[in-house]
Amino acid sequence: KAGKKCTYAVRPIAKVAYSTVETSVKFIRVGAIGKVTLKNTAKKLTISWAKVTGATSYEVYYATSSKKPTASTKPTKTVTATSLTVKNPTKNKTYYVFVRPVGKNGSTKTYGDWSAVAKLKITK
Question: Exposure string (b/e) for 7-20, b if CB count within 10 Å is 16 or more?
């Protein structure tokens, strides 16, 4: 469940007996991003979304291409708030926006999935 600490234990199995070697990993699973909202006001694009359980920050990827980012795609911005304002977006271009939550397990980051695409044509 999102926001709860989980433990996975892995133990190799031989054909006849169980091994005594065991590795366990503790982590906090982050929830999923809901709807991403876009708003265009005078020379600004405002991106917002609801807070996600287990997330300590959010990665935002926006571009004028509709190609969905992959797990290894570098985000355009990383923020701790649930909104981001882009100043001076290009007028008459359509912006495609994806957001994913990031949790922290000690010094290790846990990434959620990228959101569904949100798109908006800049008119102001």
Answer: eeeeeeeeeeeeee
User: What's the whole-model pTM score?
Assistant: 0.80
- Measure the CA–CA gap between 42 and 46, rounded to whole angstroms: 11
Residue bearing the bigger pLDDT, 60 or 10: 60
Contacts for 76 with CB less than 8 Å, ≥ 6 apart:
60, 61, 62, 63
Strand partners, 39: 46
Pairing relationship of beta strands 77-79 and 108-111 according to DSSP bridges: unpaired
Residue 88 structure tokens: 């001076």
Full DSSP string of 7-29: EEEE--B-SSSB-S--EEEEEE-
pLDDT at 62: 97
Handedness of CA 25, 30, 32, 38 (dihedral sign): negative
